[in-house]
Amino acid sequence: MINNSYLLGLYGMTDWAASSGVSSSVKAPVRKTQPTAPWSASYNVPKPEELVRTAMAGRRIVDENAAQLDVKGASSDYRKLFALYQGLDTLSALVNRAGVKGVGATEQALLAKRFSSGLDEVGAYVGKTELNAVRLVQGTTSALSKSTGGVPRDNANSITGPIHEGSPDSVVAAFSGDVAFGITIRQMDVTTTVQIDLADMGATPRTLTSVLEHINGKLEASGFNTRIGREQIKAEPRTFSANGKTISLPTGPDRWALSVRGDSTETVGFTAAQTSDAVYVVQASGTAGGHQLLKFQSDGGTAPPVTGPAIGDTHWVDSRSIQTGLPPGIETVRASATGPDGSLWIVADVDAGSGNQPIKGERDVALMKYDSAGRLVSTRALGAASTASGYAIAIDTTGRVAVAGSVIGALESGKSGDLANVADSFVTVFDASGSELWTQRRGARAADEATSVHFGSTGVVYVAGRAQSAMPGESASGGWDGYVQAFSESQAYPSAPTVATSAGTAQFGTAADDGVQAITIDGSNLYSAGVEGGRLVVRQFTLGGGGAPTLAATRDLGDAGGKVAGISVSGGRVILSGTTRNQALDVGTVNTAHSGGTDAFIAVLDTDLIVSAADRLSYYGTAGDDTAADVKVQGGKVWVTGISNRAEGAKDTDPTEGYLTRLDPLTGAVEWTRTWAGDSQQAAPMTLAVASGGASVLDRLGLPNGEIQQSDSRKLVDATAVRSGDRFYVSPVNGGRAVAVTLEARDTLQSLARKIEQASRNTLKVTVASEAAPTGIDGDLQTALRTGVQRLSIMARDGKAGAVLTAGEPGRDALAGLGLSQGFIGVSSGDGAVRTFGLDLPRNLSLDPDSLTATGERLQAAMKAVRDAYRALAPASTKPKITGTAPAYLTAQLANYQAALARLGG
Q1: How far apart are CA 514 and CA 509, in angstroms?
Q2: DSSP single-letter state for residue 142
Q3: Which residues contact 476 (CB under 8 A, 6 or more apart)?
Q4: 260 within 8 A of 158, measured Cβ to Cβ
Q5: Do 355 and 788 touch, CB atoms closer than 8 A?
Q6: What pTM was computed for the model?
Q7: pLDDT tens-digit readout, 707-731
């Protein structure tokens, strides 16, 4: 190896590079101005196992006293960033330890607890720490912040699903046969019905063009501005992969939907004289976690029969009129019910909110309303701060909706229950429009959950479920116990908020595990059904004047061998249903025998629960395993849905078929049944709901029965996941008191914008930005209205430094529900601006196995932000740069040097 110093001496050169800035292998010592960074190779970084050990021993995650700087008199900013980096490195070590294979459940729980407290410690440190030369925030840095949570704009235009594909001048199959319906137009309090009967067109071909001309002619002749138009859905190119190659398929034909173009003075609706009962089934379909809503038309009634699959329908089966995909982000659906207006409400667990409705925690409960055409009308998020699950739904005759389930962490603002990490039962009641009326959270000291809910005849709301310890005022029997609880409502004056209070509780069970899966109410009697100590048990409670339940009778039907799906009272008889392997339930007369595996069962009992000669038992199933996912009783008949004929011990990936059946509970006779497959041979029905007279010719046209809801609530507590009392803070960029922005029940985007500006002392400019409705694309027609959306837009005012948004306390943070990031909003670089760095560490990071990788990536990004801030503290060099022409003697020396190198190189 050639020694450059030797060559320099050989040819009489001096180390000019040391004083002139010319590169050389000989450099003069440079005075150290920046302390060695904690990630530097020359720094003695503690090993990961040592970091984990000290953290689990209770040592502070961020410790300025442990920050060792090797430059005397260095800025205090270095010490603070040094300590913060070491703290993040410790959190990263905890993440890596949690990901090690073989770590036991006990250690995992301890790691998760320490990580959570350590994350809080980092957040608190960043929030209170002030730096001199740079700015550091817990969240992000941006010149403009726009909320992802949005409020739909009013829109009088409604788009149906596709009803035709091809040319608009070709005959439309959906218009064939007997097509007659009414269009209702309401102006103020006056409603007029315009009758439409395509038979009036005579021999004219029923194309989109001609039919719309006929309909609009009728509307115009009646003096209305509403019109029915057509919406083109452009076909998109289709591709698939084979042997590593992407193959393009020919573009399919364009599709067409109907467009109902209303007027601000005209509320539009539809009605049909000929109807039949409708049955809605929500199912999981395919292997990618998708969910679908299916609508079937029952036999009987007067509605024209379903003649074939709708446009885009897959795995069609006779009598199915609608197949609609549910929005992404749904984890599961456990309950559904129809309202008095024919709408469908479903309760879904969501692990991700929609694009306009982000959730606050890991999982929330969404109440989703669909019209009779299978289009999403509205979504209400419960607003849980951590985790919630929805198990039951009930709707009363006025359209009020009750949802029950379990919640971990805060639900009502700032209230997280006796133990923040233990599940409690909750029930929330909404009015017919979906606005929350009241919420009650009532739990035992240990875990409990509400699995059924029902409205009583006097307006009392009844909740049933199970608890691992005593409910308030009750005694525990051991293990899980069943319970029934009543809530009464009151108002101080007619316009005052509705207040719910407990009207009584009954807790019962054995020393083993017990629970209630279903309840129903018949006058002053409440019936519960569940599995108690492995036995199938039905209980009767009498309801007192205030609604309190008192046990009156109990009946044991034998070994459960399965679970309860539903209970109802019809025709003076109790009808119980579920799934069982027990081939000899203790019910008396057996109409149809057990077929093997697990079968659905329907038991008919006396209302006093005494053994009676009129008791009946019917099994329904095949030789394989059959499930009863959900059961409803309509007109004395039993509708049941589930998975049919699954081989015992089958894998989750094995094919499954769904079924829907109607039986006579008194005879066991099967009156109507359908089975079907799903995407990737996976169909798994989850819930069903029956709408009397809910099916008509409107289904094939994609039109809803009843009035179209042309607008939705603009209140943030309705349109987003925030709850009244949630808040966040606005702080001056250069330090000072943080001002709380608290959400109230009446707040809209407009009122919130004013609150934020006031809290920022007018350093922020907050506007409500409107986005246009999306254009028509395939798959974009699952909502009832194609509306634009309004969002908050936040930026620094001209000439102002901006402000810092900080999340509210755990359990009442509004930023997550609004879809706003905490952090600095303003100019963070450029002349005169303080360089600002954001850690972007949300509070909900966890060591859950499904989110471990994402948590680690977030920490690495935060550590990079600290490294960038650390480097930004390096003092700028005051030594002037050397410019101009080099002296002649230096040029000669360099030439000699190059000549020597050339000779050595041969």
Answers
A1: 6
A2: E
A3: 444, 467, 468, 469, 470, 507
A4: yes
A5: no
A6: 0.87
A7: 998 778 899 999 999 999 999 999 9
